[in-house]
Amino acid sequence: MNYLSKSFEESSALLRHADLSSDEAVRQLLEVTHERRRADLSGLSPEEQAKLVRARCEALQPSEQELARRLRLSEATGRPFVAKFGIDPTGAEVHLGHAVPMVLLSRFQRMGHHVVFIVGDVTAKIGDPSGRSEERPPLSDEDIQANLATYKAQASAFFDFSRAEFRYNGDWLRGVSLPRLIEVTSHIPVSMPLQRDDFRARLAAGHGLSLAELLYSVAMALDSVEVACDLEVGGSDQFLNMQMCRKVMEICGLEPELVATTPLIEGTDGTGRKMSKSQGNYVPLTATPGDVFGKLMSVPDRLAIPYLKALSEWHDDDIAAVEERLEAGSVHPMDLKRIMAGEVVAALHGVSAAMRAREDFHSQFSRNSYGEIGHLPSAAISGLSTADVVKQLGFASSNSEVRRLAEQKALRLVLEPPGGAPQRQVTVGTDEVRLPLLELVPLKLGGLQDGTYLKVGRKLARLVPPSNAG
Questions:
Q1: Which of 79, 127, 206, 453 is most exposed by smallest CB count within 10 Å?
Q2: Can you say whether the dihedral through the CA atoms of 27, 28, 30, 34 is positive or negative?
């Protein structure tokens, strides 16, 4: 563990002694921890590998010792150790909640094992019933194909797909015959899927529960059979699904896979609910560096440590060091949150992008000087309605969304006059979104001037006077 020991010593020294509000100290820390995401871990012993995996699991079944045994067996026989993660394309965006098990799975790839990333183009037709209070509306084949179009690109932040498999479970599930399905399910008691709390709650409340939902975990288990999986990684809400995978593998004469569950991270709304697309409290992997940084800076301070544990390559000693400083008051929670946001942006876009996002956030929200922010989109002040400009910028997808933003007072015009004069911000009302910007800007700000911005939630764009357009 020579490389890791040296890396842990460097990060521990920074976290215990450096000024963590300093850009230079944070850059050094991000460079050290980001390098770990690419570190070759194949030289670790099976016991060291199992310990490194267990450190970021909520549960490892059957045990850390069993994982080490299976790794030793793989080494002795020359058969690749197969680690699997599956995701259903029920939406177009992969988010940070999905990234938690992917961070753990990426360690297996760097340990030299065979990683299989499975997109459930067939299981998406059912929809994972975990935690649902009602049936998921069915998706069409067109919806599913549109959703999964960029999944490989989004997951590439964590995997080298030149050395990992990216597969669709339709490649084998569409070929499963009815006799084969009956053969497998005849060994599975109905009580097994019905032990789920969410299913029992739905039945008790008189809600529907389809036979397809009962078969979801069986279909997912056939994925494990197809790839001869040794270990599956998933969120803790997938634990019962993965128990079915173990059962079906045993039915099919294979050694049951090990199960590694990861914690479910809270969403950005601070309500305690898990991050999910349905709640709208998620951070998509497709977001720009500035948007990722800004969304993460909006979470409660208490989430900085859980996010670091789940999404970074920090060691337990790193976490302990910063927790000690938080308790002693030598690190401000806001500075730690900036580091956490930087860690996530660095994972997705690199350290340089993380530092630019950090600087831009400081300019925008600490100094309130929008003129110092680089990389801002721009739009001409023209005869187009404000709603149309917001949509053209990609800040909203529909007129109803623009109106909703206005109702929430999240749509603003900002004037930052030259010479250091105070900044002015005015809200745009729901009726005003229909006005052309050419009329709205003079109405709200008293004239067309340089230093005018359109702010939509956390997104910002420069407004260029007509004479400067083009």
A1: 206
A2: positive
Angle at 281 between CA 280 and CA 282, to 5 degrees: 95
Q: Which long-range contacts (CB under 8 A, 24 or more apart) does 193-200 make?
A: 193/217, 193/240, 193/244, 195/240, 196/129, 196/130, 196/240, 198/129, 198/130, 198/131, 198/132, 198/133, 199/129
Instruction: Evaluate the omega torsion of the peptide bond into residue 62 and state whether it is cis, within 30 degrees of 0.
Output: yes
Q: Which residues pair with 411 in a beta bridge?
A: 456
- Give domain 40-262's CATH superfamily: HUPs (3.40.50.620)
Are 67 and 50 in contact, with CB atoms under 8 Å apart?
Answer: yes
Q: How far apart are CA 374 and CA 356, in angstroms?
A: 9
CA angle 39, 40, 44 (to 5 degrees): 120
Q: Where are the domains of the chain?
A: 1-37+281-367, 40-262, 378-468
Judged by average pLDDT, the poorest of 83-87, 267-271, 306-310 is 267-271
Tokens of 62: 């059957």
Whether the CB-CB separation of 437 and 389 falls below 8 Å is answered with: yes
Let me know: does 224 contact 83? Beta carbons within 8 Å. no
Kind of pairing, strands 378-380 and 424-427?
Answer: unpaired
Please answer whether residues 418 and 450 qualify as being in contact, where contact means their C-beta atoms are separated by less than 8 angstroms. yes
Q: CB 336: neighbour CB atoms within 10 A? A: 21
Q: pLDDT tens-digit profile of 210-247?
A: 888 889 999 999 999 999 999 999 999 999 999 999 99
Residue 418's SS3 state is helix
Strand 452-456 to strand 231-235: parallel, antiparallel, or no bridges (unpaired)? unpaired
- 3-class DSSP state for residue 268? coil
What DSSP string runs through 130-180? TT-SSPPPPPPHHHHHHHHTTHHHHHTTT--TTSSEEEETHHHHTT--HHH
- Report d(CA 434, CA 336) in Å as an integer: 42
Is the domain defined by 378-468 classed in CATH 3.40.50? no
Per-residue three-class SS string for 339-358: HHHHHHHHHHHCHHHHHHHH
The residue among 412, 463, 407, 410 whose CA lies nearest residue 438 is 463
The DSSP output letter for 422 is P
Q: For residue 170, with 0-12 CB atoms within 10 Å meaning exposed, 13-18 middle and 19 or more buried, which class applies?
A: middle
Query: From 2.30.30, 1.10.240, 2.60.40, 3.30.750, which CATH number describes the 1-37+281-367 domain?
Result: 1.10.240
**Residues in contact with 355: Cβ distance below 8 Å, sequence separation at least 6, in sequence order:** 23, 26, 27, 30, 342
pLDDT per residue over 316-368, tens digit each? 999 999 999 999 888 899 999 999 999 999 999 999 999 999 998 887 765 55
List, edge to edge, every strand of the sheet that includes 411-415. 378-380, 459-464, 452-456, 411-415, 424-427
